[in-house]
Specification:
With 152 residues, the chain is an alpha+beta fold. Helices cover 28% and strands 31% of the residues. Keywords: Acyltransferase, Transferase.
């Protein structure tokens, strides 16, 4: 079965895995309880397009996830929405899954009427995002690079 990208609303059984991966990757080391991350993830089950979470999977096999959220960089609250928390399972990397997840989140932002979407990344990943159509708009905001992608 080929990998597909689904809205978490349609595959809610993946929510515990999404919460675990995102928490371990970005929040556990900051002392944020898993329950706090899960509460934020649960906001993706609402009816608004932002926030939303998307899951890459092959049937019941979890491959990765990404979120579309209102704000990912506190220093830039006027920029919205953000493609955030992009995660691909190590054994599924380098197969185009991250690009498919980013594309799905970006499409959701545009479908919701936003003219652009934003993304924050460490400088070491700048070339990766630039090669996928993201334009650098600001550097070194709390150690991150800020990228944007406009509706074409």
């Amino acid at each position: 079965m080929p990998a597909i990208v689904s809205d978490l609303r349609t595959v809610p059984a993946f929510a515990p895995l999404v919460a675990d991966r995102v928490w371990r990757a970005w929040w556990e080391g900051k002392g944020v309880p898993l329950s706090d991350l899960r509460a934020r993830l649960d906001e993706s089950f609402g009816t608004d397009p932002v926030p939303s979470t998307f899951v890459a999977h092959e049937g019941a096999r979890f491959l990765g996830c990404v979120a579309l959220i209102a704000c990912d960089v506190e220093e830039r609250p006027a920029l919205t929405p953000w493609v955030a928390a992009l995660w691909v399972e190590p054994e599924a990397r380098r197969q185009g899954i991250a690009a498919a997840l980013m594309a799905r989140a970006t499409e959701a932002a545009f479908a919701a009427g936003h003219p652009r979407a934003y993304l924050a990344a460490v400088p070491a990943l700048a070339a990766y995002y630039a090669a996928r159509g993201w334009a650098l708009v600001e550097s070194d905001i709390d150690g991150l690079e800020i990228f944007a992608r406009q509706r074409s």
